[in-house]
Design goal:
This protein is of the alpha+beta class and about 170 residues long. The protein is built from 3 helices and 13 strands, in the order βββββββββββββααα. The protein starts with a strand and ends with a helix.
Amino acid sequence: MTLRKIKRPGGVFNYEVTHITEDEFGVWLLLPRGSHWNAPHSSGTLRFDCVLLLKPEQYWIACWANDPSNRRLEIDVCLPPQREPNGWSYVDLELDPVRHENGFIEIQDRDEFDAACCDGWIAEDDARIANSVASTLETALHTREEPFGDEGWRRLDAVTRNTFYGNR
């Protein structure tokens, strides 16, 4: 299954993902260590495990990244994800609320967002929505409102320990 991240004007980024489950939080996907990705400028394999959560009617995709150098929950503010025949796609709106393992919370890529708005890649209505969604998500990261608390970490631990890699 493929997850396509569309960055305007940067092109399409493709990630090889595995469907985990669907529940009240949305659609859970695994982006396992070693999975393939490609982008207009490069390609490679992922060095660490991630679990992703998306909900078709929401303006975000959450990623619990088990990166040993910077374990974090990062959220792409985006147009609502669309189901495709072989996976999902979404248009990135650049703003990225992030909670790092040490508890520091920030909204990354404001400069990319501003440039995309100035260059006409993000419409005015989408820009208003993106700012509102980023602010709401920043609050949810602070309050640890689920699924933005520990739910994703529990899912990542369970799927990598018990399902994907086998019992260890």
